[in-house]
Amino acid sequence: MDIEFKVGKSWIREHSIDELTVKLNRYVDGTWYPLPTEKVGENDANIYYSATSPGLSTFAITGELKKLINWVLISGLTAIPMLGGMLAYYLLRKYRERKMREKLF
Length: 105
Hints:
Layout: E1 2-8, H1 9-14, E2 23-28, E3 31-34, E4 37-42, E5 46-52, E6 58-62, E7 69-73, E8 79-83, H2 84-104
Antiparallel strand pairs: 1-5, 2-3, 2-6, 4-5, 7-8
């Protein structure tokens, strides 16, 4: 049987979920089993999925966290690893402040 469900984009963003890893899970005899799940569409507010289940049960929707390690170019030659956008913003601001001080003196 096919089960269609939706997940709000705002919830996915707020919880840093990778939308391609969302799965419907089926609970049977004390164990959770991930079901074959695929993204079938989206609109401005939601992402729609379809999963195939062998029967009815208790279900849970899960997803994996996005990988938070990115690379930010501070100059044309230097790359640094960082976690999340706020650290990148902070480092870029400090870099620019240092460059401005160097120009003034």
